[in-house]
Amino acid sequence: MCRLTICSLVILWTCSAFAQSPVIVANVSLLNQISTIFPTTLVTPSSDALYRITAYMEMTKTNTSNWSWCANFFFNDGLRKRGVGVEVETNSDNDVSSGVFVAADKAGVPLTYSVTDCSGTKRGKEPFNLFFTIEQLQ
Question: Which residues of 68-87 are buried (b: 16+ CB within 10 A; e: fewer)?
């Protein structure tokens, strides 16, 4: 019985030693931005990879200008290009947005992000803050 317990403990210890923690591959903080951010590569996996994207976006002031920003993250899971993201607006309760997304990306295909004017107004640009972290899970 004692021998079986010791073997079980050794197996559990060995398995836990090989468990992987997520690795942060990108950590971005953008303050008081007032312009579009064109597609920017965050990471290009050398083999198929699974990522967790944690994003938080906020307007730095609210008003009635009907301005909104969209932060989008793009990847390709082997079937097609996909996108996930967050949106904030100046004149509503949507002046803060956050989300946690999982992205399966194929080897050699970059995981990218961009920020665009999703209001379509092209009038005055209101500043925003954007914070996000990309973790590789597998």
Answer: bbbbbbbbbeeeeeeebbbb
Higher pLDDT, 126 or 85: 85
User: Are β-strands 96-105 and 111-117 bridged in parallel, bridged antiparallel, or unpaired?
Assistant: unpaired
Q: Where are the domains of the chain?
A: 22-136
- CATH number for 22-136 (one of 2.60.120.1120, 2.60.40.420, 2.120.10.30, 3.30.70.3400): it is 2.60.120.1120
Spatial neighbors of 66 by CB under 8 A, at least 6 apart, are 89, 90, 91, 119, 121, 123
**Cα gap 49→136, rounded to integer Å:** 7
Give residue 121's pLDDT: 65
Residue 129 and residue 78: Cα distance in Å, rounded? 32
- Model confidence at 49, in pLDDT bands (50, 70, 90)? very high
